[in-house]
């Protein structure tokens, strides 16, 4: 956490960007924050839906998912921008579309974004940037319970998803995914649980002037 990020206020909207390690429950934390504050919550699926509503096509969803290096690219194949590489839109073009959609959402009202490099995309706005993490043992146990995996399978999935998120974030932001100095707050969800972590983040954000 860096002091220069504290005390910022957004005169227009409350924007909360949540990065998370896989299995930490960061998405659930973000959803809980949204429910407590009455702020719309945007994960991959909801950003994709918004993109469709704004005129982007998802007709190449399946093919893009097979080709793309990054999971988010599975949706953003736009007929408006044309196709590349034998019928596919490039990852860089799809990231540009993602950025436009996230900026559009942020310009219209309060929002909570889960992942998708939203902290970087909205870096020129006063946002509340949070990273939710947890010890490996806790994350593995959550995955065993929620996904019905063996501990070994859960650990392999956790490592793979973390690498994907790190690669995606670092490539497009030129930064370091999960590095504390990139965020206003880094919090271990295993300490207070999902609801308690959401309450803690809200309390911190209000005290820091980052949540109205």
Features of the shown structure:
2 domains, 50% helix, 5-stranded parallel beta sheet, disordered N terminus, Rossmann fold, alpha/beta, 212 residues
| β-sheet strand percentage | 5-15%
- For the record, the CATH class of the largest domain is Alpha Beta
Class from secondary-structure proportions: alpha/beta
Q: What fraction, in percent, of the residue positions are helical?
A: 40-55%
- Tell me the series of helices and strands, N- to C-terminal: EHEHHHEHEHHEH
Task: Output the strand order for the largest sheet.
Answer: 2-3-1-4-5
The N- and C-terminal alpha carbons lie at a distance of: 20 Å
The main sheet comes to: 5 strands, parallel
Q: In angstroms, what is the radius of gyration?
A: 17 Å
- Beta strand count: 5
Uncertain regions spanning at least 5 consecutive residues: 1-10, 59-68, 71-87
């Amino acid at each position: 956490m860096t002091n220069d990020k504290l005390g910022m206020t957004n005169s227009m909207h409350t924007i909360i960007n949540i990065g998370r390690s896989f299995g930490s429950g960061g998405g659930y934390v973000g959803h809980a924050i949204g429910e407590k504050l009455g702020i719309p919550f945007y994960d991959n699926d909801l950003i994709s839906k918004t993109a469709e509503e704004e005129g982007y096509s998802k007709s190449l969803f399946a093919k893009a998912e097979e080709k793309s290096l990054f999971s988010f690219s599975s949706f953003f194949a736009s007929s408006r921008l044309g196709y590349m590489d034998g019928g596919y839109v490039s990852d860089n073009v799809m990231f540009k579309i993602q950025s436009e959609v996230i900026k559009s959402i942020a310009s219209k009202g309060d929002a909570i974004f889960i992942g998708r490099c939203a902290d970087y995309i909205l870096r020129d706005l006063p946002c509340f940037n949070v990273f939710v993490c947890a010890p490996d043992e806790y994350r593995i146990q959550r995955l065993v319970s929620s996904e019905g995996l063996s501990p070994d399978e859960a650990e392999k999935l956790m490592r793979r998803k973390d690498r994907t998120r790190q690669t995606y974030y670092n490539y497009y932001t030129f930064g370091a995914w999960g590095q504390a100095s990139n965020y206003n707050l880094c919090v271990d969800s295993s300490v207070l649980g999902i609801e308690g972590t959401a309450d803690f983040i809200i309390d911190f954000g209000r005290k820091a002037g980052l949540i109205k």
